[in-house]
Amino acid sequence: MTTNAELAARFEEFADLLEADDVEYKPRAYRRAAENVRAHPSPIADRVEAGDREAVENIDGVGDAISSKIVEYVETGEIEELEELRAELPIDMADLTRIEGVGPKTAGKLYRELGVQTLDDLEAAAEAGEVQEVKGFGPKTEANILDNLEFARTVGQRHLVGEARPLADDVLAFLESIDAVERCEVAGSIRRWRETIGDVDVLTSTTENEAVIETFVAWDSVDDVIESGPEKASVRVGEIRVDLRVVVPEEFGSALQYFTGSKDHNVSLRNYAIDRGMKLNEYGAFDVSEIDDPDAGQRVGERVAGETEEGMYDALGLPWMPPELREDRGEIAAAETGDLPNLVTRADIRGDLHTHTEWSDGNNTISEMVDAATKRGYEYYGIADHAEGPGVVGGMGLSGEEILEQVSDIREVGDDADIEVFAGIEANVDAEGEIDLSDEVIDALDVIVASPHSALDQDAGTATGRLVRAVENPAIDVLGHPSGRLLNQRSGLDYDITAVGRAAAEHDTALEVNSDPRRLDLWGSAVQAALEEGAKIAIDTDAHQPSTLEYVRWGVHTARRGWAEPDDVINAWDETRIREFLH
Ligand code: DGT
Ligand code: CA
Ligand code: CA
Ligand code: ZN
């Protein structure tokens, strides 16, 4: 069956190709549809198959034209118009756009002018000095492309958790529908909620291996069977590889523990076990204290655990630990002393402080966004559109006067709303760490998020000084997406998180975990380092439309990877406490 993620990927590709073809407006509509399709809570293909065309049209941002394409794709596996565009522009778009400064538009131009289709073509053209001859390019762009090629090649292999996890959820739902499957669970990096995923690992227990594997490789969504054997199968769904392992019920827990990883966590845990006369592997936990040669086989010694994952940790005298913590960053020692964190959950989140509206580059009105936040059960909600400044795309940012106008609009909406609405702004942290807002504007606002959008290639020393300066600024409440990275596209600022975290703690500025799956910035290890310095974090979505308020899912798990507890997260606090912090 066609998944929502697959449909979304098609519309994103559509948008890229239309942009490459210099078509205006339409790409944005397709991107918006893609976001909403991806975030849709149930399989859209089911509605199509039930003939419920209206339900499809009623999805936000979909409408008549796009719903026809959804129906076409679900029914035929193709969208004719997309096939035509693909033939017209045979470009490796995902590869090329990974180069900083190369978007779909540029890729289209490079194809038309120089016939560039792949990274190799681009490298050859840049090395031959052909790129700088194209109108709108120059020697600097050409040098930049050459500098970025290696990064683009190495990061190319990993997928965003925001794309891989919805697919993993679909895989789980499919496996759960197979009668012979007793238990199933994701494992690997996806269960640890890493920001990027190499492949999706899934594990099932059954007594009927063959039936399960046969059914799995025959799943409608599978595009390619990479390998298939008695205990495992690997398939490709879209761009993503899915590894299924099938085990007997008695070994489900040990296999789940083993295949969840991380490798470093497993190595440390295994050593911890050896020190206690235990042997740990994917088949179980074994007491080998009485055994002369514990390495003689996989299943030597007395088997003490394996059916459940809890049992595996319990066999070592340790509590079970959330997969997000399993990165070998101190979790085993913390478990031993009973100091594992009580991680923040989605239910703890009471509001969002960094969201956009059509006042800048968002898609919806203030009240539409506030309604969506209210429906989510939030207690408070902050609008933070872009202020004008360096790095903000032409005309999208608000001037001081426009901010004051927007504040009064936000107040009006707030007066009628059932939740507290904060008037905020996303200011720009310039290359020196300053923001450009007048005192009058600062006084009118409830929350100031300040983010770096320009000069993202500074050296680490300069970048650290810049971000420290920003968090020391008493006007700034939240440092937004501190590094400015875009996963698979640009690495962003390299800076000393410990120094920034320490300054943030001292000056009561929260550091943002931007939940947009393309950012996830701060990321797990940075959250952990900042919290160790006593800093607070804010888990914000940076939503540009109601459906992407759901990005909070990625932000919460990223914060959990950084050991965050509810008390560390300012938007898990009640309104009184957060207002005091923001003041
Ligand atoms: P990925 O797919 O690159 O995002 O990362 P993972 O962590 O999902 O890695 P993957 O798919 O290669 O393997 C899944 C898990 O299996 C991994 O997290 C830990 C376990 N594993 C795989 N190979 C080894 C190994 O050689 N030693 C140990 N201890 N564990 C391994
Ligand atoms: Ca994996
Ligand atoms: Ca794997
Ligand atoms: Zn931003």
Task: Provide a quick synopsis of the model.
By secondary structure, the chain is α/β, with parallel strands linked by helices.
Category by helix and strand content:
alpha/beta
Helix tally?
Answer: 25
Low-confidence runs (pLDDT<50, min 5 residues)? none
How many domains, as an integer?
4
Number of strands: 17
Query: CATH superfamily name of the largest domain?
Result: Metal-dependent hydrolases
Bound molecules: 2'-deoxyguanosine-5'-triphosphate, calcium ion, zinc ion
Give the mean pLDDT.
Answer: 94
Helix content: 40-55%
CATH architecture of the largest domain: Alpha-Beta Barrel
CATH C-level class of the largest domain:
Alpha Beta
Percentage of residues in strands: 5-15%
The spatial strand order of the largest sheet comes to 11-12-13-14-15-16-17
Distance, first to last CA: 51 Å
Write down the Rg: 25 Å
What does the largest sheet look like? 7 strands, parallel
Instruction: Assign the CATH topology of the largest domain.
Output: TIM Barrel
Walk me through what this model shows.
The protein is an alpha/beta fold and 583 residues long. The chain has four domains: 4-155, DNA polymerase beta, N-terminal domain-like (DNA polymerase, domain 1, Orthogonal Bundle); 159-247, Beta Polymerase, domain 2, CATH 3.30.460; 261-336, 2-Layer Sandwich (Beta Polymerase, domain 3); 346-581, TIM Barrel (Alpha-Beta Barrel). Helix 20 links the parallel strand 13 and strand 14 (447-451). The chain starts with a helix and ends with a helix. The site of one calcium ion has 5 residues, from helix 12.
